[in-house]
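User: I'm new to structure prediction. If I give you an amino acid sequence, what do you actually give back? Let's try with this one:
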Amino acid sequence: QVQLVESGGGLVQPGGSLRLSCAASGSIFSIYAMGWYRQAPGKQRELVARITSGGSTNYADSVKGRFTISRDNAKNTVYLQMNSLKPEDTAVYYCNAGAWGQGTLVTVSS
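Assistant: Good question. You get back a string of structure tokens that encode the predicted 3D arrangement of the chain. For your 110 residues, that looks like this:
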């Protein structure tokens, strides 16, 4: 079983940046893809970005060009660099790698 620990959320002004981290432990040999999802109040959870163990990535249209997902396989950690943040990016961000992390809140507000 995989355990995931997220960090890096917080309050940021529009146009600002944050970097989220997700460290995986446990049955990590089973991890193929890792991803970030988000859930805004009153909305369904949605995929933000995903990366395979080989480094292939895909992004939600709403974050293309602003967010970058990367991973350090040696550390079993996935990152989400978020630039040019908008108020509509406000959500709880969850890491997924066959299991869910606890989530980290990102609030974009002036």
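You can read the tokens as a compact description of the fold. Here is one thing that stands out. The radius of gyration is 13 Å.
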